[in-house]
Amino acid sequence: MSSSSSSGSGNGNDKMFERAIGDIMSSIIAGVSAEQLSECIEVPKNRDNGDLALPVAKLNRFSKLAGRPDELAQKWAQAFQPNDYIVSANATGPYVNFRINKQIMIKAILKQVFQEGVSFGSSTVGNGKTVVVEFSSPNIAKPFHAGHLRSTIIGNFLKNLFKKTGHNVIAINYLGDWGKQYGLLAVGYERYGSEQELLADPIRHLYEVYVKINEVANGNEEKKILPDPTVHDAARAYFRRMEDGDAAALQVWERFRNLSIEEYKRIYKRLNVEFDVYSGESLMTEGMGKSFDVLQKKGLLEENQGAQVINLEAEKMGLALVRKSDGTTLYITRDIAAAAGRAEEYHFDKMYYVVAAQQDLHFKQLFSILKKMEAPWAKDCTHINFGMVKGMSTRKGTVVFLTDILTEAKQTMLDQMKKNEEKSAEIEDPEAVADLVGLSAVIIQDMSAKRIKDYEFDWARVTSFEGDTGVYLQYAHARLCSMERKAGVAINFDADLSLLVEPEAHELTSQIGKFPEVVRNALAQLEPCTIVTYLFALAHAVSSAHAVLWVKDREPNLAQARMALFWAAKTVLGNGLTILGLVPLERM
Length: 588
Prior knowledge:
Blueprint: E1 4-7, H1 16-26, H2 34-40, E2 42-44, E3 52-55, H3 69-79, E4 86-92, E5 95-100, H4 102-116, E6 130-134, H5 146-164, E7 168-175, H6 180-192, H7 195-200, H8 202-218, H9 229-243, H10 247-271, E8 277-280, H11 285-297, E9 301-304, E10 307-311, E11 319-323, H12 331-346, E12 350-354, H13 360-372, E13 381-384, E14 389-390, H14 402-418, H15 421-426, H16 430-447, E15 455-456, H17 459-462, H18 470-486, H19 503-513, H20 515-525, H21 528-548, H22 556-579
Parallel strand pairs: 6-7, 6-12, 7-8, 12-13, 14-15
Antiparallel strand pairs: 1-2, 3-5, 4-5, 9-10, 10-11
Helix pairs in contact: 1-2, 4-19, 6-8, 6-9, 8-9, 9-10, 11-12, 14-16, 18-21, 18-22, 19-21, 19-22, 20-21, 21-22
């Protein structure tokens, strides 16, 4: 019995084989159009049964079937008449299976890749639409840790995916650069700050200061430090001065902010991430005034012990505190202002917030408040959430700085590369390559499952050259580049593709042809694992083909046809890696 997996063969952008089946079968099956039939076509799980399959029971959604699905499958398969595209049909249980003309498939797919190159998989579906993606958004003076890594790389993937599909994208880094913690940090810096250490490594030094002052303010039982509540009072007073526009307080804050942004930019460069806008909570003062006016006019504010809240208990979201009793604002207040400001400035069609799932309630409250404010664009705001990374530390222990993780991954890759002296001698800048391979390893481990899933960070898996890892994908790409350099065969887009007769050539071409549909699915689901899973399948098909379809020292026409196939595979693998935010390597 044949059962089927996800719909669509993806063989070419235009679904020509599904359409061909629809055309033939609509003349056999009454009451169902060719278009409806082609929509139902799937790829069988067992490819021995056929290349494509029609699950008969699916047709019930269009008109009630006059008989049992397995009997109808037999009847329709017998009535089938082949054409140039579909060469045969057979029935297995409630499925009609079809064999396609492999030569037409190979020519159609490869010619399209030859023509489109790095644009293969792109679409115009987003033309004329503007999307805002807010991602990364670290807190100044806190370490850039694993949670920020996830937001950064998932957000970067979304930015690349939206661009690939024709959208106008605005990538915003909304820095956590305001709030009482800056008062705490300023008080801490007055006590423990070192100018020299600040300039040498601002984020790390400010974090150390922050940890120390927190310890004094909140106490530490192990170190026998008693809590000192006057520190919190001093921090609140300092932040109050900032909100009131005190020049001296703002000068210190601005210096910390600017030094931190410079350091973040270095990290982003390493991660291959760019932002269009560096925004921040601090820039929302004016917008908050406007938002408060709207909240007041709509009668949404309630007094609660001297503070102002919005009551969301009817939606089971509790009370949203928007202004403290001392008059200072909160994160959600600034988020309301930021959303309104972006709607006004960018006139977005969609806005995505790439933030951890721990903030689910915050975003439910935010979107509910925006709807109550009657913002027409509130419905276009979406929270892209993700799970936790557990155990992300260096091998030595609990350092939470991302730069330490990346440097360790790079060093591991460098040590591995040095084991093959001949290969590493070919690499111009081994350090840079090791850094990219290490980064690929970390990113692919992160993106291998649905983003909402928590996962254990596993050094052995990250740095393994075996199995489905980022290293394997980069190696597959570099190996194809190496073949191009060493085979002594020119890339000829007019090669005789009818010479590609082996099953491995058919399978690899079929995988290549799925890419446009995979991009469409990724856009529908906004899941990086959709692309990652596909790239592993493509890399496995490349590996199987590589073992059989030799290029070097083969007859020239055959060598050129195979070389053209491998060039197409390399191009699509590179396109996929690029959407994920990785730089495809040519040597490693």
